[in-house]
Amino acid sequence: MGSEILLREDSDGVCYLTLNRLDAYNALSMEMMQTLSAELDKITEDISVRVVVVRGGGKGFCAGHDLKQMLGEGQEAYYQATFDTCSELMQRIVNLPVPVIAQVHGVATAAGCQLVASCDLAVSADNARFATPGVNIGLFCSTPMVALTRAVAPKHAMELLLLGDLISADRAAEMGLVNWVVAADELEGYVATVAGKIASKSRKTLSIGKQAFYKQSEQTLAEAYSSCARVMTDNMLTDDAQEGIDAFITKRKPNWSHR
């Protein structure tokens, strides 16, 4: 890759993206966000990738925006560009045709917590901590709020946003911010198992399902059923659906073409 601030490793359909700004707790500088966005764009066209894992190198997952960088700029246009770039990055994750798993250790705060909330699944070490602490420094976490309110119940989101306190991994799981909490020394293996299960599926099917999931969540009940009935009809017509059903009936392992 062109930059060491983001590392990529591919293995059996799983793409691991590691935030690698170790001296800044993997803070989302403009360069980091642009680099991560560019890599996600490549993955969109990479048929070999069926699931993405986003993780942090060093002591933790991600401390959010690089406040030192932002304070040094001190200009409205730069602030707007920073938050726009971050918003576009989070939407790229949601719109990516394959699932994205957050692998969390250390802390995930502010935009780092937003990154976790934007991923489709999240696995956390039991000693990880989460927060949207902007309110403590006079900067309400308004863009992280967008992801949070789509991942957890409204009162849980407000709890994080108004108090600004660090919460435990177990509390994050209670809220629905993360799916699984595991011992720190088991985190990597657990994520690999989850990712491997997803990677064994048809990329075409995963893409259809993920897109439909987010679309129907914004629709009325009637609209959602109508939309998803059409999605399932189109899904049934794909090569992989025909292959998968035949494999099930004949009791054999499916051979996916990802079409």
From TrEMBL:
Signal peptide: none annotated. The keyword RNA-binding does not apply. May play a role in fatty acid biosynthesis and insulin sensitivity. InterPro entries: ClpP/crotonase-like_dom_sf (IPR029045), Enoyl-CoA_hydra/iso (IPR001753), Enoyl-CoA_hydra_C (IPR014748), Mitochondrial_ECH-domain (IPR052377). Keywords: Fatty acid metabolism, Lipid metabolism, Lyase, Transit peptide. Transmembrane segments: none annotated. Gene3D superfamilies: 2-enoyl-CoA Hydratase, Chain A, domain 1, Lyase 2-enoyl-coa Hydratase, Chain A, domain 2. Belongs to the enoyl-CoA hydratase/isomerase family. One of its GO terms (biological process) is fatty acid metabolic process. This is Enoyl-CoA hydratase domain-containing protein 3, mitochondrial. One of its GO terms (molecular function) is hydro-lyase activity. It comes from the Bacteria.
